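Is this the right way to post structure tokens for a design question? Let me know if I should format differently. Anyway, here goes:
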């Protein structure tokens, strides 16, 4: 009987490999995609933090916007985040720069980036995913602030 059982299972390993191989490959690709998304989100949080901190050191809203946008672009490059286009930077609460010294204020920054996922070639997944982060940083309460373009 044992000879008969062995003969009926011949070639079953090949069939199992053909069936389970692509499923295993898909699971590995999904894990790589999830890891890439987690790293991209963490990097975007760091970029938004650095952007908010740099913008909070400015004296005017226009300077904060300019410096913040420049910082976000530099940080994305420095962190090796592969965005499909330039990161979008949205500065919120810039009216805080017109508040008189002694008034507690924050500057809030939202940074968005489309991260390319097309190289993973996983069926049914998008070619790119947008990651974004919003961070805020306090403006020094007693630091002089400018109105308009004057410090």
């Amino acid at each position: 009987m044992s000879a008969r059982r062995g003969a009926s299972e011949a070639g079953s390993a090949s069939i199992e490999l053909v069936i389970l191989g692509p499923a295993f490959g898909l699971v590995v690709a999904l894990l790589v995609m999830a890891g890439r998304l987690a790293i991209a989100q963490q990097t975007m949080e760091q970029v938004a933090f650095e952007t908010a901190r740099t913008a909070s050191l400015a004296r005017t809203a226009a300077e904060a916007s300019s410096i913040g946008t420049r910082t976000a672009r530099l940080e994305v490059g420095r962190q090796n985040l592969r965005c499909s286009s330039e990161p979008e930077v949205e500065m919120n609460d810039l009216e805080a720069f017109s508040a008189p010294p002694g008034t507690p204020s924050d500057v809030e920054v939202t940074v968005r980036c489309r991260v390319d996922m097309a190289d993973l070639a996983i069926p049914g997944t998008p070619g790119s995913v947008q990651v974004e982060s919003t961070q805020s940083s306090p403006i020094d309460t007693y630091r002089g602030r400018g109105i308009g373009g004057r410090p």
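Format looks fine. Someone answered above. Worth noting: Residues 105 and 139 are 6 Å apart (CA to CA). Helices lie at 2-8, 12-56, 61-78.
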